[in-house]
Amino acid sequence: MDVIQCKYFKKTRYCLVFFCFLLVLNCETKQGISNLKVNYKEDNTALSVSFIANNTEDLSIHLKDNSTAILGSFYSDKKTKTFTPIIPFTNGETYAIKKNKSIVLSFAIKSKVKTEAPQLLNIYPTVNEVPENLLKMYFEFSKPMQEVGSTLDFIQVFNKTTNKKVDIFLELETELWNKSHTILTLWLDPGRIKKDLIPNKEKGLPIVKGHEYEIKINALFRDANGSNLDKDYLKTFTVIEADKNKPSIDNWNVITSIATNHDIKIEFNEPLDAILLQETIKIYDVSNNVIDAKMMLSNNQKSIELKHTNGLKGGKYKVRIESRLEDLAGNNLNRLFDEDLQSNKPKDTSAIKEISFIIK
Amino acid sequence: MKKILFSFILCGIVLLALSAVKKSDNSLTANFIEGDTQIASINQLAFGPEGILFIGDSKNAAIYAIDTKDVTPKENAGDINISSFDTKIAASLGTTADNIKITDMAVNPISKTIYFSVNVTDGTPVLLKLNRGDFENVSLTKASYSKIKLNNAIGINDKDNKGRTLRHWAISDIMYHKGKVMVSGLSNKEFRSTFRSIPFPFSDKQDYASLEIWHAAHGRFETYAPIKAFNVIDIDNEDYLIAGYTCTPLVLFPLKDLTENKHIKGRTVAELGGGNSPLDMIVFEKDGKPKFFMSNSSRPVMRIDYDDIVNFKESLTEEVKEFAATDGVIYDNLPFVYVKQMDNLDNENVVFLHINSEGNLVLRNRAKKWM
Predict the structure, then answer these.
(1) Chain B: nearest CA to A314, how far in angstroms?
(2) Helix, strand, or coil here: A198?
(3) Which residue of chain B comes nearest to A196, CA vs CA?
């Protein structure tokens, strides 16, 4: 009897296992897809989606409610299929896996891990009075900023004297950013700055002497991860007389002091281009070796300070300055931005200027 | 008998090897390598011969030549009219239109396939082609390619104190012409332009020219204005660069003079008005004569007759006295505004990407006879 019962029990068990197997098989056939998993990086960048499926024929991935299939590639590891889109899935979006155009399964992508909001660190020039022929402005951000859309959509200029919104910056299809996409260069329309050119005659100067302007950088401007600026930023400036003189090293002062361990300060008597300053000035010793020194802009770019690692010894030194260094109006050490090259004045074409100084 | 057979086989192998060597020596893609291009940005696209696509990468300061292998000839591209084009591209990338930027468009003159470069928010570049209304990814990580780094003018200090490279050239236009890739660029610091002529297939050689123009109105030379879009014009069997500048003269330079470190004076043939930056310049023949078409950031597409350029012999130097006047070579404004991208599609059509009156970005063809 026991033997019969045992045989009966075994048969029942086999039947149950077989039934369950059929159920699973039936379930997979009906659903087609199971065990879906989105593969995230640490910052929640969604690189791919994996799931169990018999094959990927007729399968496509879509933005939910969108008929366009997303470009990417399927990879198979036995029954596990992985779809990697050519760019990561967008955080916060919902996607659908479709088979023969019908949604089989949908999945949502988590939000990006919150990071510190980007800040606008500096707007150069930092002075509050700029010449009427100001050529360009730099906007330095704490993080790489978005590489889509037009940045000028987030930067508005308001003439506080006339109470009107104005366009002063030249719109360029290829925006001028540094490689890490943290510093933006905007030109004031050069054609409008040059007297008698058609743009100047049509629209006049971009900024006018005696007027006060306010630049607003909208907090909706995003960084490369999609985070908005931490706040709106405002800069107000007044326009003064046009600068029609080249910067001249004859007006510069090189100051060293025992009190500051012979750190070097160079005063220019006028604000110069903040970015060009950082790459056009070097100190050399008497043997023409470059002095390793950390440069800092000071006094609204009217001076720089060079701090060297070990302190300078007594002796002769030279400051070498590339002639392409510009003032705020684009005048460099050799020529005016709006120079009459037909004049008979002798032209300075030297690439480097030098100032010698001695540390006792 | 065995010796004869062996000799035949040997001869065959030698001939095959020789023919292979000869083929690879003559091929434009002989020095191409397979693999990851590591392209960091795509600012400009231009097709050369044999389906080779040139890519201007400002971040890497380099020009890449990609063998698209897209060389099946096609006569007519067929009609194109795709609205909400940015939304469609974005959807094919699994995102929304505010997360992408179409940076350039170029048509393969052999297959008539249209290629697009697209940036996503974090700057990742994507290259797509349009195939029967659907987008296909053109891999930049598994490609047959060659590249050349752009020479920079040398300064005292190309890096700041944190070791970051400060100097950066934004590639504003590229074009393949008679064995050379020509590249214009804008600086993100000094207000000036660079123009390079690079022999292709790439070697170590590249010419870097300094171009000087003479602005109308104030009778002053400029050595530092930036070229934004350019093309080539044949005048009396001599090739000239026809350059559209940012503020906005149209200037001719003899191409034969574009050699290393040479300072070339251009001839300003037109002043095209202000607040504007040229975007694309294309040329095609109409009634047996070339016509030039220039799209602009804030003006309509301009049509300029070849004869008007050729017959304008002087250089603009006189002051323009009347408000809103233009000077020099005359041009017609065509009723196509906000044209963001433009290229020759086939013998009968151009293709352009424009924002229509409803604010919708549309890709469409237009018969050349109606341009």
Answers:
(1) 24
(2) helix
(3) B217
